[in-house]
Amino acid sequence: MLLRMVRLWIIVLGLTTACNLVAPIAQTPAPTVAVDDLALYHPALIAGNQSDLARLDRPTRYDLTLTYDPATPTLSGSEDARYFNRQSVPLNEMYFRLFANYPDSGGKIAVSTLAVDGAPASFALEAQETALRVLLPQPLAPNAAVKLHLDFTVTIPRNAKTHYADFTANDSVTTLPSVYPLIPAYDDKGWHIEIPPPYGDLVYADASLYAVTMTVPTTMTVIASGSTDGTLDNGNGTTTWRIVGAPMRDFDLNVTAQLQKASATVGETTVNAWYEPADVETGKKALKFATDALRVFQNRFGAYPYRELDVVETPTAAGGIEYPGIVVIGRNLYKSARDAQFFEFATVHEVSHQWWYGMVGDDQVNQPWVDESLAQYSSLIYFEDSYGAVARQTILRDAFQGPYNRAKSAGRDMPVNLPVAAYDESNYSAIVYDKGPLFYDALRAKMGDALFFKFLRTYFDRYRYKIATGDDILHTAEDACGCSLQSEWKQWILSPAK
Predict the structure, then answer these.
(1) Does the predicted model carry a pTM greater than 0.90?
(2) Cβ-contact 259, 173 below 8 angstroms
(3) What pLDDT score was predicted for residue 339?
(4) Residue 88, Cβ neighbours under 10 Å: how many?
(5) Which is it for strands 190-191 and 186-187: parallel, antiparallel or unpaired?
(6) pLDDT over 90, % of the chain
(7) Which CATH code of 2.60.40.1730, 3.10.450.350, 2.60.120.10, 3.40.50.720 fits the domain covering 43-256?
């Protein structure tokens, strides 16, 4: 996600165009997933990357059946999830995140039914009702699987103003980011159900497989993560959309009867820009920014595997927000001439998140710099490749070094590798978005361009569809250059000492 408050430093660029364990009961081991069993998800991926599905280690599968009612407005649905315990310990409980219940979102998700392996089960709400705890009837052994079924209803706020207004029913589009029950990541600290401050991202989850059917009024279009695999006119004024997405960490949905579309292709990928009728010219600019960024990042980091990338104009108050296969950009940027350069920066930043967060995952709540700082530096790479060395130096000076120096002079310097909650909103920007990218520039200066870009390509390939940490970044960089980068790590990531 790119915070709107950082727009000021890009405007000056002058360029022309964000438990307790008990012995497990014996269970049937999870079956090995046959390659042909993954064919359902092939429409989400370009031909050369369909084999990526075989790289996944027993991914969670979500089957969602949804109905959108614009009159209420509500989203009702059912979810079937198959979860594999890839840990070395049995699990006594599981969690689903209910992000529609985020404090002051204005919306609500209510789960009415829960079943575990076909048997009714009870649940409890925790973490201000943003986490649903499932006490399993028997511990889930390592390498075993469990099937869970939930029925739920999401009440959608109208014209929301809180939490960057990225969950709302608006006059032009209804935005539904990760509003279904989502299984969070489980790591050496257990289940992650923390609630970040409203200026941070919410999702820490594993790459999963999605099959979604969504019924909406026939006059409306569904813009979603993944690819549409067909539609069915129900003959009653509604249409059912069939969508598949894989491998993806979460799933974004948008519904509109108003937004228009312009499209272009980059290789086998179709890039769609969705914009309000009054914003044709800026909508086409968003399309160009996204396609140019896609080309730059594929060349620098590695292939974009999905058949689609959507850029959607929404009422979000953030500069932009990333989701797998989708980036949303704030309506204000489409309409404000003075934000023209930030409009390009925001679009490019969110596209880079398809690599950093989307494919290479991380704990966005406790180590947000792992994706955000690299997305910022990737944006610099885009401007450098598109506009030359002067653009690179201008961004380094005015967008990163200047804001960080001002924070440091004000006594607000902090380590980069802290949780979102460790910063106030201003320092979150100055440290994670401004100081963090300077670490990458220091690595590049020491390693040289050839080894630096080898490091980024290796990091992408090594952790694609996995979870990476800050230590993984350091170790991959040191592997690439065959050198110690401890001094750069201490100067830019660990300093000042906590």
Answers:
(1) yes
(2) yes
(3) 78
(4) 7
(5) antiparallel
(6) 88
(7) 2.60.40.1730
